[in-house]
Amino acid sequence: MSGPLRLVPDEGTPGWAEETMRLRTIPQRRKRPRLGTAADTYPELSPDPLDELADRLADLCADAVHPYEIAAFLESDGLTDEQAALTYGRPDSFTLAEELFAKVARRYPGPAPVVTDPWRADPWRCVLRGLVFALPGLGYLLGADLFATQRERFGLPSGMAAMAAATLLSWAWNQALAHRAYGWLSRADRGAAGRALTLGAPLGALVAASTGWLLGGPLAALLFTIGQSGYLGAATVLLVLGREKLLLAALTPSALGAGLVYLVEVPSLVRWAVLLATLLGAVGLACWELWRCAHGSEKPAGDGAEGPAWTGTAAAGLFGLAVGTLTMIAGLGATLHHAVRPAAAPLDGSNTGPALVALTLSLGLAEWLLYRYRSLATSALGTTHSPGAFRRRTGLVLAACLLGYLAAVTALDLASTLIWAHAHLIGAAQLAALLLLAAALWTALLMQALGVAWRTAGLCLAAAGFESVAILAGGDPLRVQLYGCGAAAVLLVPTAFFVLGRTTRHR
Amino acid sequence: MRVTLLTEGTYPHAHGGVSVWCDQLVQGMPDVEFDIIAVTGTGAEPLAWELPPQVRSVTTAPLWGPADEGKPPRGRTLRRFLDAYERFLHSILDPVYASHFATELYGFADFARRGLLSPALRSEPALRTLQQVWTRAYLSTAAAQPTLHDALHATDLLEHALRPLSVEPPHDGVAHAVSGGLAALPGLIASQQFAVPFLLTEHGIYLRERYLGYRTGPYRWPVKALVLGFYRMLAEESYSRAALVTPGNRYNRRWEERGGTPPDNIRTVYNGVDPDLFPAAGPEPSVPTLSWAGRVDPIKDLETLIRAFALVKAEIPDARLRMFGGTARGAEGYRDGCVALAAELGLGDSVVFEGRVEEIQDAYAAGNIVMLSSISEGFPFTLIEAMSSGRATVSTDVGGVREAVGETGLVVPPREPEPMARAALELLRDPARRAAMGEAARLRVIEQFTLRQNIDGFRNIYTELLGEPRWLPHGVAPVAERATAAEGAA
């Protein structure tokens, strides 16, 4: 069919412009004028038929924006100028419409409020995602004795340098890859998203693994690094394509294995087998999903559609690198300090395990809060009438979500400290560092999600750069973190308040 | 001779009434060079027609898809834009400022071709401007209490609607818009900047269709008021700037005159059919039959037709009603309702929905009389096709029907079964009158409503527009003269 186009493809309902009015503008049967009886000494003025029409079309007239709108209805209902004259005594349908428009007051009934919230977060999905973010940590528990801690390389336990470098690279790469794939998905092109992942995930794993290999270490640690690079690639594929359940299934052997390790002594062959099973499961399922993507998409490859911008991809990659560095320094700060200054006395409170566990476990909640923020901000759009009021409202929502997140991280940290064997209760400074890191991370993720790519990446990179340099220069890791994450949080939160307080960010 | 056809959602990317007409027009003038600027959805639509060699280029102006991600203007340019935007919004919302609309629209065209318009419209300052303007107490939108969501929604729609401004407009020849609305945008710019004569053909009334379409859409009042206000101002600007407005029937003139077209600038050019494709249908069926052809849709008001037929059948028991044509998408329920109505009235087998037919001529041949019961029409093809087939017709008095039929059929008020039944009975009982009317109908088509006449009509208009300077601003030479002068100089 041809005809006027909708301004946006998903505007309105199907059959939108073709819907025919069935208003019955013209009375089905015209009443014959009743002959006056003897009682009617003074014949009454006959009622204006327009009154009755105005009653019948009240809703329509109350919602009209211009007399033209009513004239269009009347005509589509079959009212001709002749009938306007015969039935209603008006010269034409335009005059009739003008009188109706003037007669009926605007009531602005408008369309029924839209009940679907695009940012409605499914809490179970967030729990699921939280689990698949947290469970891989168990892999380190299983692989802990693969690192020979007695030998050292670059001042670090042998193999750790390779592992750290590979992890950082994977983190950055996969963040960039996810940006591209999500970009294609948002263009409703699952095939292209699949192609980007098919190409990007193995390449990223290869780059990360070879970097680890080049840095060198004991064979076991290097194998573990290679496996981890593969796993991270596969996990990216499954998470981007929305297959968290498959990833959870792949992680089951590790979860069971870790439980076993916790209870009894297990030979290293079994540990290897468990890790390998997880890796093969994840990679296999990712391949299967990619295969389905390639064969299930309707669009042919390379139909010339423009993909997501490469600058955005670069920003996402750098953001991943920065966040990875900040987290790694939070975890390995003391170890790195020891590597730089072997002679220094061991630091107090260097057991960062519970903090990292808390942070990892909180990721699901962080994501849920991101959704809550967006949902509340979107509903604020529908209730506020001035940009200032909107800024205040979103500012409050931001504060509430952020404080809620920090409270949750604190609670998780305390809980994991209790479970952790031989852990001391966290000190005030350590808690502050953890919370500053959490605040910076959550705010950065929020800004990233709302498309503030470069400012977020820049601030996080600056903080990560400062911390790295300070640590390598031999600074106290705790203080370095307090300053680095503190500065990042202090800059990020007000930036978020201002930038995300803009109405156009939430279109 | 050079003509730029301006289309929206039709030729050459879609099928349908206007599209068929465009194809006939282009095919009918092999000596005219055509360029096409088509407002489309995604811009990736395949061509629905094979283009003849006289079509030199097809440019698409897609409406959908993500906006241009350029940087919004800053500093003085931004301030200039915001001032212009404020005047533009006022011109739409407040009749007092209506005269600003054209100036600002043409100013926006400059922004658009520098790639600045979309980013500027989507910027935060533009949104604040809109929110400030439409909440001012003296504007009608203020009472509807527009929210920021409304402001975003309206901005978004406006930004999409203005995208065709970024197309390079034609610099010479005739700019011929085959519908009002967004298709006209490049033509208006061409007329304003290069004094290219702008010709506007309306088969339906674009503005009326928009008003109808937005009623059921998901729009809050202020959004609807702003977007429809934009379309109304665009229509008025198109009507007043067009060198000539050519409605497909005289009935449509009402909207065009109402919208401010100078009456002298309106010239009706009727659609036409090829009489050889719809030859005289020959002998009538032996059983008295009423036939109807078209798409089954509530707008065709088949309920009235069935009720009228029930009255006919009461007088002539062996009469039949045959309805030809597929069912419109979404109108299946309506069709079932009609079938149920026929059963309820006890019409049984004498009312038949025949469905789609291969040769539409057979539908006209199948009846002694061809019926048209619509409650709204432009200049219906089914009617002139039936007339070309030499059948007498009974049709409702809507749109251009009366102009088409003249004295060669009976015209009755819409939605009223009794007069329709009376007219049908009158003709069924008088074979001589029926035959005379049918003959006259075919003659009327051959004389006034042939495809050839339609095409020649437009050829004459093109020639006239390129040769006459009367619509040009003062001191601007007509295009044809400039071309001759340029050739002379070379």
From TrEMBL, chain A:
It comes from the Bacteria. Keywords: Membrane, Transmembrane, Transmembrane helix. The keyword Chloroplast does not apply. The chain crosses the membrane at residues 126-148, 154-173, 194-215, 221-241, 246-264, 270-291, 312-334, 354-373, 394-412, 418-445, 452-474, 480-500. This is Membrane protein DUF2157. It comes from Kitasatospora nipponensis. The lineage of its organism: Bacteria, Bacillati, Actinomycetota, Actinomycetes, Kitasatosporales.
TrEMBL record, chain B:
Residues 1-264 form the DUF3492 domain. This is D-inositol 3-phosphate glycosyltransferase. It comes from Kitasatospora nipponensis.
